[in-house]
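Trying the structure run again after the queue cleared.
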Amino acid sequence: MRDPYDVLGVPKRASEADIKKAFRALAKKMHPDATGARDAASMKKFQEITAAYELLSDPQKRAAFDRGEIDANGQPRVYAGGPFDAAGPGAQDFAFRFNQGGQGAGDDRSRFEGLFGDVFGGAFSRQSKRGSKGADITFTLDVPFEEAALGGTTRVQLPSGRQLNVKIPAGIESGQSIRLKGQGEAPRGPGEPGDAIATVAVGRHALYKRDGRTIRIDIPITLQEAVLGAKIEVPTLHGPVAMTIPPNTSSGTQFRLKGKGVAASGDAPAGDQFVSVLIVLPETNDVQLEAFARRWQPAKGYDPRAKFKS
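Done. Tokens:
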């Protein structure tokens, strides 16, 4: 991966808030639902900004990257130019004896740790004893709107072909990641397998719109219901509920259904659903309604566009 700062377009002195703001702007712009593109190149760009944000949003990983201890992919970095430079003479022989424990391995290990122990703070020594970790794999996980809002479990096929059930936490948003520990590539030698990192892409819904933990919906009502008031049934993610429309309700009036938004998750409480009513006239010409409108005389002082006049 390229330098994560370049990927997100932020300077190295950027604050956590600046990094988060840059990621959200790029994720919104490059999200598959926004671009309409789901080809390999587009997915790779979206995964790249997610991986860059994952590294820079972690204070420890960011500090390690800034010090040069890990590369942009989060892997330990060995500096070139020393006697054990991968391109230098004897490097392959040393690597073999160091990893395999052959003759002279103890001496080589001591010399290597002496050279690099201060740089890695002992991390390389511990790494050599327990083996290297396999590479992480990344992929995009399409999550339906309702499942992202309410949570659930979905069956996922990894790029490796393995299938497993993945828990979807309620309230997850596009651009966020789910880490599947140990589901990445196997290590080349002794060690743990890498992780699989799923970047979430939440689908759209025909009726609902989401704003954080708030769900919004437009509900049509008749002119009669707006004038006289009524009790109507409103769909929610949790099932239909009855809602009262008071008399003399204007189109665009909003009503709140408490707790009917995104489901509670962890420390986050359940969100609300906001219902905007829209007065809808009959599609065909209604003779009685037309006759009433011709006879109707608005009350004195009634002017729905008064605020637009100087």
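Confidence is low (pLDDT under 50) at residues 79-129. Worth checking whether this holds up in the mutant runs.
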